[in-house]
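Changelog note: in this version the structure field was regenerated for every chain. One regenerated record is shown below for reference.
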Amino acid sequence: MYRFTYLFFCLTGVFALKVYAQEVRVSGRISSRENGEALQDASVYNTRNQKFVRCNQFGFYSLSMPRGMNMLVVQAPGFKTDTIMVNVASTMSFDFQMSEWAEQLADITIIQDEGRLKHGSGNFRISGSQAGKVPVALSEPDLLKALQLFPGVQGGADGTSGIHVRGGSPDQTLILIDGVPIYNVNHLFGFFSVFNPDVIASADLYKSELPSRYSGRLSSVLDITMREGNRKKMAGGFQISPISMKLRLEGPIKKDTSSYLISFRRTWLDVLASLTQRIANTGSVGYLGFSDATGKVNYRFNKREQLFLSVYWGNDAFGARSKSAHDASSNRLSWGNLTSAARYQRIFGNSVFSHTTLSYNHYRSQFKNVSRILDNRYSTLVRSSIADWSLKSDWSYNSRSGFNLEWGGALTRHLFNPDILRRKGDVYDNSVPSADSSRTVVADVQVYGELEYKTGPFDLRAGFNFAGFMVNGSAYNLLQPRFGAKFAIAPTLGIKAAYFQSAQYLHLLTNSSVGMPTDLWVPVTESIAPQRSEQFSLGIYSEWKGIRLSLEGYYKWMDNLIEFTGAGRGIDNPYGTWQDRITVGQGSSKGLELYAERKFEKLDAFLSYTLSFTNRQFDLLNEGKPFPYKYDRRHVLNFFSAYNFSKHRSVQVVFQYASGSWITLPNARYSALPSILETTLSESYAARYLRYFDQLDYLPARNNFLMPSNHHLDVSYKTEKVKKRGIRTWTFSIYNLYNRRNPYFVFVHDAKLKQFSLLPVLPSVSYEYRF
């Protein structure tokens, strides 16, 4: 009996090895038949050996198949499913081109790996076209506002585009555009983001399981990939909204081999405001506006080699000028980003994929004031900037035995000029110096590796990211482990756990609620260590009667956080450096996230809910006691639906609710000095002004006041018409349909608490033409 059993296992092993040896590797690229662009959400399933693979962000797949005839099922959201028979004799390359559905519904993709369950990673992907279908104020599509609908993602002030992920501040989300970090993502003081949905292929938000290739931020990663451009024919379009005008042009340089994509966007608020003020002839002129441009070129040398060149440029400006007989003044605040990247990708054999990127990015902000009072002239110039040069290389290997390996590294040179002040003029003396922060050069080194193993219902992923940061002779090194596991209990039910550590070597100094250009990016120093975090998450995912459900809980601990001490600084305060005005502390965040999605024939809808608790603790603030983070919003509920009446007519509805955020308000005011002014001055404006500033606020606790909740209902209606040479689209939208007076900020006036609301009900219309 034992001999028979031994012989049986030996024969089984030999048979398995023989079958394994008969499998060969097939790889290739999946693209759109209409424009030749890579399909990032495409997947290939082999019905013969029941193996499944999902494409990477460049449309590349690699799958092992038995020799002989194989039936492959190729799928991608919004495209017709293809079933193809392939005769595999040896290792080969095979490309797929897929056709779009005549009617395409809006949907959100839940990023997944090669598992039996069709969703469940806790991360999300959204395309630029999907982001453009979310109703927003003034019909200006916005990627970041669309991302605010996801569980675990919270917005900032009412109507702004900032994102706070799982209790993190805005700087704790790494935002990449074609692999290049971008430091300020705001237009118009945060009411719109710098990302034009027309040129975005996809945006991947990682907040649950963090891949090892990412490092440098504590909370999450938003990886945005720009479109490649139409390889088949020339195309383009323009759009006019109440805020801006957009223009896009794309097409092949050499058909099926290379293509280009360029876009330009500009607001006309500054033009209208300047024209109105000049007609009114008030002697003063104010302006506020933004513009941005995007370009991308790609060239495919052959099936194995491809080169991408991409660039983004954006600029905002805000200012005012006034002039009279005795004085004149001019104030201008400007900020902007420039990113550029050259990426070379290559396939080695049929299993190894690599891409190497050389990039440069630069962020700068500047405030300039020039004034004349009688015969005295003076000027103030405050500048801040950060510039990076980076070289990184990423590699992946897909084996036939269920093991997948990723590895790579990056070297970055940061140049910080965080706080430069220049003063000139007749009114200054030696007691008011200029301040010039030291020019700081920082080296940033990263090395990572990650191994994934899949067998049956199990999917295990383990990796590390080693990061080193060198500044002013000091070195910080940290090994950041990453781990994730999924187990499919049944074809429609699974559980998942994840853990990661992360470190952040950059700090954003801010005391505003929106991303202001005066915020300062600063590096770690000899005395200020990197921020660190650990996060655990556990979730359950299922599909039941066409409904996708996910429920996930998390806990995150953060250390070495920095905050202004409260004696903050004005934009032109020359005394001391930023290190003199901050304190170091810690924080934590925990929460529960629910996501439900249902697709019908003509209706798509999803709902997300987040319950979270977030706090901060600093020895020099709030008497060392923990206090709620300013965006510790207990409940956040979002609902989105899109209904297609026909191929060319649709309606979209969004409802958003969020508990109020926390702010610090004084409980009382008291006199700092005897009010001699009241007896020596008449009851004039000057007397009241001086008396007000003769008093001090009593602040018993940090973030001691909870603002009212924020909620609004937004609706948009789109109608398209096919013209002789293109498609015309009208979009009619209403933001804040029932005119909810949401608080933008609150303040104390005459011993009463008052609220300022910024966005009432806002109807708008936009026009778009595509050819």
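Spot check on this record: Helices lie at 2-22, 128-131, 143-147, 269-280, 677-680, 685-692. The first strand starts at residue 23 and ends at 32.
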